[in-house]
């Protein structure tokens, strides 16, 4: 192949530095933070159930938004054994199955965590909590539905059961990652099963998900934004994508610490491609800046001028082109994600 022994060692060392940095300084720490936030979410849900007031509702909404936005940093790491477990879909799937949720609340079903475990992914998780907390026009309507409304107790029980299940799944996800830490760090081979290959594909898949699922579906279906736009009810759609993009950029740079080693260092120090690195960094910066400078919510765009979402979609597409074509070619990455994956 023409690769010397010294160069081959450098490639393996680069892969090892990249994967260890990603696990130790990002994935592992995100798990700890997520568990803490879901624990607080359960506390806030219990306090709201015990005393449903505007104050406890506001506190619960804050707990939900903090945990949900934290999850937006984590959802891109759906790889390997974790991906095969389908646990990510148990934590967040959208759009939610509103009809099933409402039908369950309207019955005499004993709604607890065991019930939530038994239902489909679109009937639990962060999306369902958002629907229950933000689906009505005002906080007054939310409070009425959970205090004096028909089946108010079941509605409260559903809310609390979903919060409990989120905490359980946060703990289960950490256990999965802890159990596979060694194999994740040790799989330094090239090819589809190597951890570097899985990581680069996760970044590409995360960007494709933003482009196709979180933006393009809204552009192509302007008549039903509530079914296409993530976090439609809370209007956190733009902020959720920003959290995705910043986590994806950090995974590329490896800058979880001051001296982090990521895809960027591998490209520059191992493959000697500073030119390509500069282009990728600029594409990330352009997209992130564009989202920050977008003052209106994506819900407003979706309902009034979906064409404005095209500009955001195109900025994400530029990053995808550089990673999916140029970076993968330079780093000998086998791209397994395609536009029809629907992930």
Distance between the termini: 36 Å
Order of helices and strands: HHHHHHHHHHHHHHHH
Average residue-wise pLDDT? 92
SS content category: mainly alpha
Q: Helix content range of the residues, please?
A: over 70%
What value does the Rg take, in angstroms? 21 Å
Q: What is the overall silhouette?
A: globular
Can you tell me the residue ranges where pLDDT is under 50 for at least 5 consecutive residues?
1-9
**Strand proportion:** under 5%
Q: Characterize the biggest β-sheet.
A: none
Count of helical regions: 16
What's the β-strand tally? Answer: 0
Please render the helix and strand layout as text:
Layout: H1 5-50, H2 54-74, H3 80-85, H4 87-91, H5 98-105, H6 113-118, H7 125-134, H8 139-147, H9 152-186, H10 195-220, H11 225-228, H12 237-253, H13 263-270, H14 274-293, H15 298-304, H16 307-330
What can you see in these coordinates?
With about 350 residues, the protein is mainly alpha-helical. About 75% of the residues lie in helices and about 0% in strands. The protein contains 16 helices and no strands. Helix 10 (about 195-220) packs antiparallel against helix 12 (about 235-255). It is globular, with a radius of gyration of 21 Å. The model is unreliable at about 1-10 (pLDDT under 50).
Short description:
By secondary structure, the chain is an all-alpha fold. The chain has 16 helices and no strands.
Characteristic key phrases:
343 residues; mainly alpha; globular; disordered N terminus
């Amino acid at each position: 192949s023409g690769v010397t022994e010294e160069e081959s060692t450098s490639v393996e060392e680069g892969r090892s530095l990249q994967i260890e940095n990603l696990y130790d300084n990002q994935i592992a720490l995100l798990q700890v933070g997520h568990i803490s936030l879901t624990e607080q979410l359960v506390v806030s849900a219990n306090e709201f159930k015990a005393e449903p007031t505007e104050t406890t509702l506001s506190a619960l909404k804050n707990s939900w938004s903090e945990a949900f936005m934290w999850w937006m940093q984590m959802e891109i790491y759906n790889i390997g054994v974790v991906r095969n477990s389908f646990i990510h879909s148990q934590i967040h799937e959208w759009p939610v199955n509103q009809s099933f949720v409402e039908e369950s609340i309207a019955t005499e079903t004993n709604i607890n965590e065991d019930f939530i475990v038994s239902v489909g992914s679109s009937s639990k998780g962060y999306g369902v909590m958002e629907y229950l907390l933000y689906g009505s026009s005002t906080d007054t309507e939310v409070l009425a539905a959970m205090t004096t409304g028909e089946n108010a107790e079941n509605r409260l029980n559903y809310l609390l059961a979903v919060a409990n299940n989120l905490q359980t799944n946060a703990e289960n996800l950490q256990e999965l990652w802890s159990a596979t830490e060694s194999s994740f760090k040790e799989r330094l081979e090239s090819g589809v099963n190597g951890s570097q290959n899985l990581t680069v594909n996760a970044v590409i898949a995360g960007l494709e998900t933003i482009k196709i699922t979180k933006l393009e579906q809204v552009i192509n279906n302007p008549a039903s934004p509530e079914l296409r736009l993530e976090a439609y009810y809370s209007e956190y759609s733009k902020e959720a994508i920003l959290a995705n993009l910043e986590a994806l950029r950090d995974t590329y740079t490896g800058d979880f610490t001051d001296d982090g080693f990521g895809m960027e260092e591998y490209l520059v120090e191992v493959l000697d491609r500073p030119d390509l690195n500069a282009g990728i960094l600029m594409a990330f910066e352009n997209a992130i800046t564009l989202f920050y400078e977008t003052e209106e919510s994506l819900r407003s765009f979706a309902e009034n001028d979906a064409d404005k979402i095209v500009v955001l979609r195109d900025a994400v597409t530029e990053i995808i082109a550089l990673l999916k074509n140029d970076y993968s070619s330079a780093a000998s990455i086998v791209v397994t994600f395609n536009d029809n994956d629907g992930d």
